[in-house]
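Fold these two proteins, one after the other.
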Amino acid sequence: MNFFLKIALSIFFFLSHGWSVEPSLFDALTLTESSTYSVLVKNVGQGSCTIVRNHENGHHLVIDAGSSSGAPPGLEGRLSEEFGFSEANSDIPFMDNSITIIVSHSDQDHIDLFKTVFGLNQALLNRVGQIVLGDHFDNYFRLNTEGTRPVQETRDFIRDFVLRVPGYQTKLLSLSHSETERLDLRALLDRRDVAVSIPYRGFLPKGSIRRDHFFREDQPGEVDILGVNSGAESSKEKDTNANSAVVRLSINGKNILIMGDATGHTTGKILESVADPSILKADLLVASHHGADNEDANHITWAMVTTPQHVAISHGFNTGYKHPTLTAVANFIATDLAKDDRRPDKHILSVFNEPGVRALTMSPFGMELGGGEKEHPEWAILSTEKPIYGTGTSGDLTYVFSRNGLLLDFKRDH
């Protein structure tokens, strides 16, 4: 063999051996599966907004879109861009794919951004194919706690978002009432007596979104609403958090649970209604009530039943709300939530720690807590490699799933 050819081949084999990537470093599934769904838990400050995109047909689910305080700059523009809309491409028609809106409940920090993002963007309003309202329908027309004036935020949500969706009369579905589309919403906005005199369904263990509103015909999956109106026939009949809708996106048996502000009462009713709790096991769980533990939200029983592999918490830094809490975070870490040894990702969470709780929750989990600020000693920094993230400390959270529901990728802003 020619001397120079031998030298060239030797260099080639040396370089190919030295610079090739060891295949075992990659999950074999990620090499064969293509990404189909993206779940974006948006950093909306003290609020909640989850966007699920189906890349095969361009359809979206938007579960809540609200922020009452602490929203980062430019949020409305960044949310609009998630739907392919910006000033640069505003002339592109979007009628060939649709957006399904699911509102877990009527609280301000879950509805505000619908009017500021969608209400000012006719291209997005035109794409809304269905609006699904969780919570007791009367709560969208309720008075303030003193009963003296309407709650302006819910009025604005109806006036500046729902009423501006073309053909809203046939697109609006209230999970607590069966005849919502027949109501004159404009007349309800002006009423002082907000009681809606139509039949109240009461508790429904499950409701489903039409498959063609999100999936292609050949895609395996379903979108369910769990625990609808769980406050029915109890003292919590019109409790907004207890009536919060829980969304389950099931893709080929892999579950994504988006909890809204569901309380222990909500999850208790769900557990009572399911014959097989294993259907609640979650590959991704967007934690309830911004990671709070009051009213038994994010209870250890729910954490053990769902055994989420990844947890996302939508939260801001309003110290008055006292969440996420160390107790709620510890409940999830106590389950099968395990760090990803393939991609170690040490990060931090800000947590609220009630006095005396640290001793009860620290030792089993090996978590590292840094001290809180002097003026707020109950707040601390939790350092962990477990796949539990908060939008307040990590920014936007993006989870990418395959057509068969396998988690392929995860990204965070910082």
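Now the second one:
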Amino acid sequence: MIMRGPYAVVRHPIYTGLLTMFVATVVVLGHVAGIIALPLVFLSIWIKLRHEEKLMLQKFPDQYAAYQRRVKRLIPFIL
């Protein structure tokens, strides 16, 4: 289990990057379809990361639970 580097800031840095890129693209292009798709993209990533966290808790019950208490999921210090 890795808890250093970007994983010290958020538990799912890849999803944070993907969401950031998607939001930036929607803002720059301003298409209505992108604005409509944004909540769907967020929801799909949220469902996937919750599933992954359940697996991590099974594999590393004590370590991952402590890690969850220390580090936010997607947005540092917020979410």
